[in-house]
Design goal:
Blueprint lengths: L34 E4 L36 H6 L1 H7 L3 E4 L3 E3 L4 E2 L5 E2 L7 E7 L11 H12 L3 E6 L3 E4 L8 E3 L2 E4 L9 E2 L12 H6 L5 E4 L4 H16 L4 E4 L7 H14 L3 E4 L11 H11 L2 E2 L2 H13 L4 H13 L7 E3 L8 H4 L3 H13 L3 E5 L30 H15 L2 H4 L1 E7 L3 E8 L2 E8 L6 E3 L3 E2 L4 E3 L12 E3 L7 E2 L3 E3 L3 E7 L7 E6 L2 E2 L4 E7 L7 E4 L2 E2 L1 E5 L3 E5 L6 E8 L9 E5 L4 E9 L9 E6 L19 E4 L2 E9 L3 E9 L5 E3 L5 E4 L6 E6 L3
Parallel strand pairs: 1-2, 1-17, 2-7, 7-13, 13-14, 14-15, 16-17, 29-36, 37-44
Antiparallel strand pairs: 3-6, 4-5, 8-12, 9-10, 11-12, 18-19, 19-20, 20-27, 21-26, 22-25, 23-24, 28-30, 30-34, 31-32, 31-35, 33-34, 35-36, 37-40, 38-41, 39-40, 41-42, 41-43
Helix pairs in contact: 5-6, 8-9, 8-11, 11-12
Length: 714
């Protein structure tokens, strides 16, 4: 979530009938997918009937000269280009927030009218925006889109922005509606549906309390801990699931209540198969809240967009920095993120200048694309990249990074590279599941290897525009033999010869790597024991279905075990298994697959929760005195509370202290359970101070939200 001048962002009863999901595709293993991000309004105008709807007339600009107005792109337009997307190898589309948005013009700083064409000013989370669908705000066009996508093997991700509604000082003053019925607004907020804090500014962006509870650019900040808002937002997400979506990109997760989001993810996963990732903006792994970000990703069940790697990609390919920057980020994140293969990688997006605006060089774009599509993580391509789309006005930043899609050629090099490497991702498990290791590197050359058991992919990139390099001493896990370039020379690639070696270090015959070249060589083994590369979601209570991805599972159903407990198998294919989380004690488990022949797979970690998660506000008053660098944490007797952990990464926290010495945090804990807990101080030097006395106890409600307020025991 960046500044407003760059982006004017972004349990009630459900329908009395249950909608049948429109696809049986498995979303919980997203590692094999290639995501294509679409700004719906700027992709394709499929229906002129919704360009200037009556309830929000005057927000459309047919001349496409007002860059902050609607230009006509809609859900029907995306649907009409589905074969184009499928032909590119796109397997998932991430669309702009499709919910009903602000109906009025709001002048920008220069007095020019603006519209919420981007979708980040929601007024009703349970209806579809009329500019994208129809004047009755019904789900018809959305359902048609999902049906068409699934028919083409493409999953649908909706951008979901539960942090805020509309601007609190203009237009509709933050008004929120529940399927057409007014809930309330910011200026007359007698129910406490919103936080009423100042805008985040200055150092507040890195202050944990301000980041979560202060306001983004005058956007009415929703109080998710209010039981009505908690139920409303979770019901809205479930409604999208009922309409067949496969995943959610959650906007501004750094600025949402972190603890509440655990319960949001759990609500979504409990309802059904899905994949979640969010936007936590941070430039590098030295960001002040980087540690909080990977702790969040490791615990919440929500992955995130990989901004540190994005920064490195843009520096290396766009600004000619050394490849060591990329290698360093890959290494650092690999040691911090438990589920690093679920991080969503990207070159550019709707909040930053397009790659070609920072370096108008198609060679560099092809190299960056190839890297993103073959390196660790789930690649996301910003719409139009395959057509070299960019507008460099004012440096190409918002809104000029969101031009109208013009060309839909299927013959560009970028389109073909995406197609070929998407196919490789689906066919060779080294790409979605494998390790990533640097094999040869200098300032201009990066040769890295992806490996998953016997499957191997070796990639060589030379980003220098004029100089070739002699590659000597290169080793690989590829078996001895000759390998042709998987990209068939489209980016200058060629064949190599691998000789016999030992220990996964087979020497490659010396070769010359020409300027601006990408070569991809790959090997796929046959046979072998079951190999597990993915589990999703990564946590859940008894009864939650999980998808296990990998290979060599066989066609005949075998056995899935959580530790030593056998789970119910719901479906079984050679590459994917769906099993139900069994009734076992809460904690971390090793999950294994045994095929019908008795062969046992490698283990993969899964956290069994105690029960459905309920967000509870824990407050401790008059806590132990702290100095700079000391923090209060919460720990307790369940896995949700850290199993009495006393480490930074294991305990819950750090807690927030806007009213020192009182500290609080929202924590998602197990519904209906009587829990035991205590507060601890973890000092800057790592030493731990426990509060005295007996354990606190609290019985968690079975639904809604809750709070517990205690004094530190001296």
């Amino acid at each position: 979530m960046l500044k407003l001048s760059r982006r004017l962002i972004g349990l009630s009863l459900l329908f009395c009938f249950v909608l049948t999901p429109l696809s049986a595709t498995l979303a919980a293993d997203f590692k094999r997918e290639v995501i294509y991000q679409i700004i719906t309004d700027r992709f394709f105008d499929g229906s002129t009937s919704n360009n200037n709807p009556s309830q929000s007339s005057g927000l459309y600009d047919s001349t496409k000269t007002n860059w902050r107005a609607y230009w006509g792109g809609d859900l029907a337009g995306i649907q009409q280009k589905m074969s184009y997307l499928a032909g590119m190898g796109v397997t998932a589309i991430w669309i702009s927030p499709p919910v009903d948005n602000l109906n009025t013009n709001i002048p920008d700083g220069s007095g020019n009218p603006t519209a919420s064409y981007h979708g980040y000013q929601a007024r009703d989370f349970k209806r579809i925006e009329e500019h994208f669908g129809n004047s009755s705000n019904s789900w018809t066009e959305f359902d048609n889109l999902v049906t068409a996508a699934h028919a083409n093997g493409i999953k649908v991700i909706v951008d979901f922005a539960p942090n805020h509604s509309t601007q609190n000082n203009a237009g509709e003053f933050g008004a929120l509606y529940d399927n057409g019925a007014l809930l309330g607004n910011f200026t007359s907020d007698t129910n406490g549906y919103f936080h009423h804090n100042a805008n985040i500014s200055g150092g507040g962006w890195d202050d944990r309390y301000q980041a979560q509870y202060f306001t983004l650019f005058d956007l009415a900040d929703i109080n998710q801990q209010h039981p009505t808002m908690d139920a409303y937002l979770k019901a809205a997400a479930q409604l999208f699931q009922q309409h067949g979506v496969d995943g959610f990109r959650i906007d501004a997760i750094k600025h949402l209540n972190w603890g509440w989001q655990y319960s949001l993810a759990n609500s979504i996963y409990t309802f059904g198969d899905s994949f979640l990732f969010g936007e936590w903006f941070q430039g590098t792994t030295s960001d002040p809240l980087y540690r909080d970000s990977y702790k969040y990703a490791n615990k919440s069940g929500i992955s995130m967009l990989d901004f540190p790697l994005n920064t490195a990609i843009r520096n290396v390919f766009g600004n000619n920095a050394n490849f060591s920057q990329i290698d360093s980020v890959i290494s650092q994140e690999g040691s911090n993120f438990t589920w690093k293969e679920d991080l969503v990688t990207f070159i550019d997006n709707h909040d930053m200048a397009r790659f070609l605006s920072i370096n108008n060089n198609n060679n560099r774009l092809h190299e960056a694309l190839a890297f993103t599509l073959t390196s660790r993580g789930i690649p996301c391509i910003y719409y139009g990249t395959e057509q070299y789309l960019h507008n460099d006005t004012s440096g190409g930043t918002d809104p000029y990074n969101r031009p109208m899609m013009v060309n839909f050629s299927t013959s560009t090099t970028a389109y073909q590279v995406i197609n070929k490497l998407s196919t490789l991702r689906r066919n060779n498990t080294a790409i979605p599941y494998g390790s990533m290791s640097q094999r040869w590197m200098n300032n201009d050359v990066y040769i890295y290897e992806r490996k998953f058991f016997g499957n191997v992919v070796l990639v060589a990139i030379n980003k220098n525009e004029s100089s070739s390099y002699s590659i000597t001493g290169l080793n690989t896990s590829l078996p001895a033999g000759s390998y042709s370039d998987y990209l068939t020379g489209s980016v200058g690639g060629f064949s190599i010869t691998v000789n016999s070696g030992s220990g996964g270090n087979n020497p490659v015959t010396n070769f010359t790597l020409p300027a601006h070249t990408v070569s991809v060589w790959q090997f796929t083994e046959s046979g072998g024991s079951p190999q597990v590369g993915s589990i999703g979601p990564t946590n859940g209570q008894s009864g939650v279905k999980v998808t296990i991805g990998g290979k060599n599972f066989g066609s005949t159903t075998g056995t899935v075990k959580f530790g030593t407990t056998t789970a119910t198998v719901n479906s079984w294919t050679p590459t994917h298994i769906v099993a139900t989380t069994p009734s076992v004690t809460n904690g971390n488990y090793s999950v294994t697959v045994t095929n019908s022949g008795g062969q046992v797979s490698n283990p993969i970690q899964y956290t069994v929760l105690t029960a459905k998660l309920i967000p509870i506000t824990f407050t401790v008053n008059n806590a132990s005195p702290t100095s700079v660098g000391d923090y209060i944490f919460l720990t307790g007797n369940t896995v949700e509370l850290g199993k009495w952990s006393t480490t930074w990464d294991g305990a819950v926290g750090p807690l927030l202290t806007p009213n020192y010495p009182n500290w609080f945090n929202v924590v998602s804990v197990a519904a209906g359970q009587t829990i035991q807990f205590k507060f601890i101080k973890i000092a800057a030097n790592g030493s731990v101070t426990w509060e005295a006395g007996s354990n606190h106890t609290y019985t968690v409600p079975t639904s809604g939200t809750g709070s517990v307020n205690v004094n530190w025991q001296y």
